[in-house]
Every structure is written in structure tokens, then in C-alpha cells.
Amino acid sequence: QVQVVESGGGLVQPGGSLRLSCAASGNIASIYHMGWYRQAPGQQRELVASITTTGTINYGDSTKGRFTISRDAAKNTIYLQIHSLEPADTAVYYCKTATLSAGRVGDYWGQGTQVTVSS
């Protein structure tokens, strides 16, 4: 079994910055890629950013520029640095990992961390 835990969310004023963390643990044979997604109320979940084990990075169309994804492969951890936060960034941010575990490749999601941007 694989556990995915996000942390670092909270209430931030517009223009502020935030760093989210996501750690995967458990019966992990290999991680193929990890990524951040977000879901605002009444909206579909969307890609924020993802990174593969080879370091290839993809950003969602609405998150290029102010978002930076990075990883610590040794710790099975990724980070999301967000600058110049806007109220439109308010959402639950989820982490997903595509992982080989117990002989199967599957997607594992965390419970999410709430980011609220408000004055």
C-alpha cells in the first residue's frame, strides 16, 4: 500500500507565497511521476504541475509562471512553490503519484491540502 500526504496549505493574503509538500511512503518499488492538481469549489480538478523521475516537468495552462515544482527523489517528496498568490488560486491542492507497488502500477492520491487566498 502507498500513502500520499500533503502539507503546507493555509490562509494566505493576495500577493503572498506558499510552499506545499507531498511525501509518498509505503510499499513503493518505483515512482514514475508525481504531480499536483487542484480543485476549486464547483470546478473540475486540474493539473497544476507534474514531474517525472527523469526530471521532465509539465505545468497546467493556468499555472505557468507563478508555480514551481521540484522534487527530492531520495525522500519520494515533491514540492510546489507558489508566488504572487491570487484569490483564484483558492482550491484544495491534491498530490498524485504514479507508482509501482506490489507488482502493479497505480495512481495514488493524497487527501488534499486547502489553500485559501483572501485578505
Short summary of the structure?
The protein has no helices and eleven strands.
Protein model, in words:
The protein is mainly beta and 119 residues long. 0% of the residues lie in helices and 61% in strands. It is built from no helices and eleven strands. The chain has strands spanning 2-7, 10-12, 18-26, 30-39, 46-52, 57-59, 67-72, 77-82, 91-101, 104-109, 113-117. The strands form two sheets. Strands 2, 4, 5, 6, 9, 10 and 11 form a seven-stranded mixed beta sheet that branches. The chain has a four-stranded antiparallel beta sheet with strand order 1-3-8-7, with no helix packed on it. Strand 5 (46-52) and strand 6 (57-59) form a beta hairpin. It is elongated, with a radius of gyration of 14 Å. The mean pLDDT is 95.
Topology:
Elements: E1 2-7, E2 10-12, E3 18-26, E4 30-39, E5 46-52, E6 57-59, E7 67-72, E8 77-82, E9 91-101, E10 104-109, E11 113-117
Parallel strand pairs: 2-11
Antiparallel strand pairs: 1-3, 3-8, 4-5, 4-9, 5-6, 7-8, 9-10, 9-11
Structural class label: mainly beta
Average pLDDT score: 95
**What is the ordering of alpha helices and beta strands?**
EEEEEEEEEEE
Task: Report how far apart the termini are.
Answer: 40 Å
How many beta-strand elements? Answer: 11
Number of H/I helices:
0
Low-confidence stretches: none
State the helical fraction: under 10%
Oligomer: single chain
Overall, the morphology is: elongated
Gyration radius, rounded: 14 Å
The largest sheet, given as strand count, sense and whether it forms a barrel, is: 7 strands, mixed
Instruction: Indicate the proportion of strand residues.
Output: over 45%
